[in-house]
Amino acid sequence: MTEQLTRPQVQVHSLQSGLQRRVATFLRSFPLESNLLVALGDGEATLTQGDREATLAGPALFWRRRAGRCQLSLAAGASSIVAEITGEALARAIGDFFESGLLQSYFDADWERGFAAGDATFADVEESLRTIAEETRQQSIGGAMIVIARLRIILVSVLRVSAAAETAGLARGETLNHLRRFRQLLEVGFRAHRSVGDYADELGMTADRLHAICTRELGRTPKALIDQRVVREASIGLERSTLSIKQLSYALGFRDPAHFSNFFKRVTGISPGRFRRMVIASSPDNPGFAPPSYADWP
């Protein structure tokens, strides 16, 4: 039993950078059904497994569950650390915790992941792999325990980063959906001069949250977006229709033409009458006002 517990279950091979592109050769210490983790520190590498090929630029990780026959091609200057991990070692590192199901699910599939230069998680993974390499080389008392502990740190660290990225992606997607829905509601209701709170209620959020989403994603407040939508419609009417300014103000839901004129000048800096004259006469003193567009909406 002692011999089984202390037997090396993870083997780490360092592949240093070279002057030319090369196919990495590393001896498989375990059966081909063992797992493979490749930590690419810098440069570019391609991992080929059968008819599947993945290329990443470092820092990056490749994970292959029950790897089989793999070939690692390193570009000139690229370096990596390759870890062979038996199924037994992986199971011990995953353990029996509340989060073990997540770990099992994530590492039960093949994946690749790139990291930003200087990423702390990737640096921790490299450090743990080097510690594993040293422990397996020394074969000291308790070394197998340290190997499994370090492997668990790697698994959890990668899971945390991936979960955070997935959560951020979901949040980003939800934000864009809210913005699209806000635009749709605005298209239908801008003539009714609904308040920011009205739109927020229909979106199922507070006005403060809608304000935060719009200013973060579009650089404008919901009120500014509402006003600009009305101004855009007013500009088109002033340019293309024969309606008087009074008639146009009523068509846009203003009860008082004077209120419309004040609103238009506040948002654009010029009065409706002057805007129409500029369009007709193409005056040289035209400040180049262009109706706000929705090009930057998602």
SSE layout:
Elements: H1 2-6, E1 10-15, E2 22-24, E3 35-42, E4 44-49, E5 52-57, E6 60-64, E7 71-74, E8 79-85, H2 87-94, H3 100-106, E9 111-114, H4 120-138, H5 143-189, H6 196-203, H7 207-218, H8 222-240, H9 245-251, H10 257-268, H11 272-281
Antiparallel strand pairs: 1-8, 2-7, 3-6, 3-8, 4-5, 4-7, 6-9
Helix pairs in contact: 2-5, 4-5, 6-7, 8-11, 9-10
Radius of gyration: 31 Å
Total helical segments: 11
Spell out the helices and strands N to C.
HEEEEEEEEHHEHHHHHHHH
* Low-pLDDT residue spans: 1-5
How is the main sheet built?
Answer: 5 strands, antiparallel
Compute the number of strand runs. Answer: 9
Q: Roughly how many Å apart are the termini? A: 61 Å
Structural class: alpha+beta
Shape: elongated
**Average pLDDT rating:** 84
Strand arrangement, largest sheet? 1-8-3-6-9
Strand content: 15-25%
Helix percentage = 40-55%
Structure, explained:
The protein is α+β, with helices and mostly antiparallel strands. Helices cover 52% and strands 16% of the residues. The chain has eleven helices and nine strands. The protein has helices at residues 2-6, 87-94, 100-106, 120-138, 143-189, 196-203, 207-218, 222-240, 245-251, 257-268, 272-281, and strands spanning 10-15, 22-24, 35-42, 44-49, 52-57, 60-64, 71-74, 79-85, 111-114. The protein has a five-stranded antiparallel sheet. The protein has a four-stranded antiparallel sheet with strand order 2-7-4-5, with no helix packed on it. Helix 8 (222-240) packs across helix 11 (272-281). The radius of gyration is 31 Å and the shape is elongated. The model is unreliable at 1-5 (pLDDT under 50).
